[in-house]
């Protein structure tokens, strides 16, 4: 695999910072006890005002972080993430996905993980270092609004790939790809698509999940046409077990960049995500982290590490399961509320899980309806055009059921039905 | 000021994400409002409820469920409102910028909480620099900045510094290559930004005095430059009162200022090879039209800095007040001043006649010029073998392939005994090197 082919000029130009690389060369040998380093400009600990942090958990137990824990967490290179936390994550990826490139140093795309400042940060590292103006990016359609906004200013050509209630439709993807010849696609000037972006589990905004068969078919197309799969999978753990195998799990060729998030299973505010993929690309992203955020918040990482150690893998999965049931209950409440009020004015598919219901209103354009809903009823939902690649009229809306009570869902949908009826009588 | 002139194609093309706009509307709406718009996880699913932090002085800060939920949930990009207000108050008190709270000023001062000051710096450069641009950098300069601008394929122009920091006369001389009319003409190649570290310079340890700052600001006005004031060592100045910042004299709204919380509040932990600071919280202060661009970049990348770090800081800052913060800053400066003195004592003792240096007026670094032609190999091979390490000066140069006689020594974490032994070992190495080249 020639990974440089996928990088843009900025990505290719990234080099490890001189201080870091010099020190890596020197210090990684075997630091001796009496060695004295007057090198890094690190602040002295004794000026730090806090000495101990205690976190009270919901289950009544608690976690303590003291200065020794900080020191222990930082024995190695911090840019990719605290070593112990990263080790925990590598093992998690092995247990859950067991990628063919895991621990395979003969593979040019050996699997590597780094900690990012949230999964969205991972997505922005990927797009910022890969995509050039006019590059072809295949996007599941509709697509997560945050992915569109990460790409928009880079000005690639985004080609929408249609989806249904099981996500991307492989035959649609094949149809789009048929304009290229796979045998010449890697020749200069014949640049085929560079990547395919999708949210494979409980998609945002649609709530749809790809089946294993579809994933296999899409992965085969990626191999044939040599494009990367950007597997943005923040809702992976919000589906109950058994999990549908990920693209990463079938990645024999090192074509998958996967974003995992702890936002939904631990906390969104601590800003921790994991970016997993082939080493040559991950190393480029690491250089970019080093020149920008340097590493994700140590307090967040330490807290997460302490929590994961306390939980163990079993505890982690048990917690994820609890989250999945929590949101599943909400989903059924939301579907019930929708049936109560929206049967005549809208249609929808049952989401596989996650946080969203994607509703098609029986109007041409949902946007004016949403505006009236906000102005007249004080109810906020997201209009569907946020998630489309063109700004054409879109009859869909996205509603999040993650944070609303059953009572409020009913109120919201009752209001929505009234606004649609009134709008239709006035306009259609 | 025409801010559009300074922004590159990429940055100008950034648009606010529609969902984030909705979040802003949402924040202003009434309590009866029902939102099913955002994709917020439910805070009831987060495993933590409360936290407490024990401070060095014995005080315990309690973070109740209400504030913890703010830290654990998605939050506004510029920072939690309480934290931003506190920081704006601090900027007003310490710098009193002419653009503070001046709504009619096109460059009204705005603060943005970033994931460490380096992230603010990186995103600012990414918004301002285009391929082929001429960029003015104080030289020698912070290696982290070189790593940021390196991949941008810009033309980096060094502006010399001496024992008092960036030299205004050399700045003027450098700019004289262009005619004044070039500076308003796009495509002329005239530089648009100047980067400098005004206090405790990294690697030089030097600081700009007030006269030089005034002169530099005047030149920036003449040539319509934006100044990137990277000032992580502002609170580690060894002379009091603080020398007024470039931000404090910014009548036009042309200063982007980067403050770091790491040096003051974050526990740096020695791990052999790099700077680790715990919180990853920095502050970008500057004219709203530019700060907003960095904000847009954050929205679609990091989203916001760690909520845990932020809620801890809010509690700590509320506990301290601005007075307590400034007191802590003063204590921190005194701590480093003592370290500097010990470092200088050891240097006097071992390196007289073998090296030259000027006294650092702030920060954490001593910049030494050794009596050798190039320090790179000497440090990387021989010093390593002798169990002592410094950073070779070439790491701070735009052209790192040229021989360089300097090294940077950091006195922040080494003990007096370690510094003494380190300089003794260095002295032996220099003597050996001198002998070999004779």
Automatic annotation (TrEMBL), chain A:
One Pfam family per UniProt: Aminotran_1_2
SUPFAM superfamilies: PLP-dependent transferases
Cofactor(s) the record lists: pyridoxal 5'-phosphate
Upper taxonomic lineage: Eukaryota, Metazoa, Spiralia, Lophotrochozoa, Mollusca
EC code: 2.6.1.57
Record-linked InterPro entries: Aminotransferase_I/II_large, Class-I_PLP-dep_aminotransf, PyrdxlP-dep_Trfase, PyrdxlP-dep_Trfase_major
GO molecular function ontology, one term from the record: kynurenine-oxoglutarate transaminase activity
EC class name: transferase
Superkingdom field: Eukaryota
PANTHER family: AMINOTRANSFERASE, KYNURENINE_ALPHA-AMINOADIPATE AMINOTRANSFERASE, MITOCHONDRIAL
An example Gene Ontology biological process: alpha-amino acid metabolic process
Gene3D superfamilies per the UniProt record, alphabetical: Type I PLP-dependent aspartate aminotransferase-like (Major domain)
Name this protein carries in UniProt: Aromatic amino acid aminotransferase I
Keyword line: Aminotransferase, Pyridoxal phosphate, Transferase
Domain Aminotransferase class I/classII large: from-to ranges: 45-416
Automatic annotation (TrEMBL), chain B:
BP-aspect Gene Ontology terms: alpha-amino acid metabolic process
Transferase as UniProt keyword: yes
Catalytic activity line of the entry: L-leucine + glyoxylate = 4-methyl-2-oxopentanoate + glycine; L-kynurenine + 2-oxoglutarate = kynurenate + L-glutamate + H2O; glyoxylate + L-phenylalanine = 3-phenylpyruvate + glycine; L-kynurenine + glyoxylate = kynurenate + glycine + H2O
Gene Ontology cellular component annotations, sorted alphabetically: mitochondrial matrix
Gene3D superfamilies in alphabetical order: Type I PLP-dependent aspartate aminotransferase-like (Major domain)
Biological function: Transaminase with broad substrate specificity. Has transaminase activity towards aminoadipate, kynurenine, methionine and glutamate. Shows activity also towards tryptophan, aspartate and hydroxykynurenine. Accepts a variety of oxo-acids as amino-group acceptors, with a preference for 2-oxoglutarate, 2-oxocaproic acid, phenylpyruvate and alpha-oxo-gamma-methiol butyric acid. Can also use glyoxylate as amino-group acceptor (in vitro).
Family note: Belongs to the class-I pyridoxal-phosphate-dependent aminotransferase family.
Protein name listed in UniProt: Kynurenine/alpha-aminoadipate aminotransferase, mitochondrial
Native organism taxonomy: Eukaryota, Metazoa, Spiralia, Lophotrochozoa, Mollusca
